[in-house]
Amino acid sequence: ERQGRLAESIGDIAKNTKEAQQAVQDEIDSRVKDSLDAVCAGFDKAIAGDREKLKEVQNKRDKAKLAGVKERIAAETAHIHKENEALKNQVKDAFAQENIPMFCNSRIYIALYRTKRMTDVLIYLLCIALVYAAVPFLLSVIPQFPLWGMILYYVVVILIQSFTNKMIVEKTLVRHAETIDMAKKLKEQIRSNHKKMKKIAKNIKTDSNEEMYGLHEFDDKMNEIREDMKRIEQEKEKALEDFEMTVKPDIIAEIEGRENERINAMKAELDKKSAENLKLENLIKEQRIYISSNYEAYLGKEYVTVEKLTELKQVMISGGAATVAQALAVYREKHL
Known about the structure:
This protein is mostly helical. It has eight helices and no strands.
């Protein structure tokens, strides 16, 4: 019973010691984290401020470069713009001199009456599909739309198309075919010039040489900010090293020094009771071996209990048996 109480006490002390050690470690971790955060806070704020400055300067640089690129594109394509304006004026003058409607220089006119390119063919087919398929389909979904109405629509469309085509051809192509073809060629030249301008613009935008945009001031400012960020990072790294070398050990020593006496006392008590417990365990083991060798071998293990031995003793004291064997016989007979 004493060994059982001692084992229970050892368990409680061990638990309390572990909890005390964990509490010390938790306090150390918390204090170290708070102190480390305090050390980093100022540096991190300064670095964040430099990042914002760097972003602002970068945005200004991008805008300045974009403006420079636009100016360069305008300068390098100015002669093509000028050529296109001259070609457009040439067409206008020719049409005005021969009294040709400007409609004859439109995309749809060229697609319908001077079909050549694939896009002209597509526009022509789209117009045919619109007049002869799309509109009739819309008419057919009208409830109770009569068949004669659909026939009338096609007749009217064919008459209008025939008359219109005849008039347009006679008024334009028959009289001014050469001028219209010339305008078509000039229009293709203008389109070709637009492609040239797009190619020039693309080459300028992808050109890695930025010397002509005057961005050195922005680059110098950005390099200055980067150097400042690098300096702050180095100072932060040094401050963290100092923290690990001095502040952190001081925090640990202060907290452990405050709690070590109590924890060491608990450990000493634990060691003392553990030694006492081991001594009791060995004593109990020796007593069990002694009982087993000197009593259980004669009585039998089932009779070596406090209750049964007490009863056997009373049998012999009362004169009911002179030997242990006789006492066992009386006990068995009594309990049959």
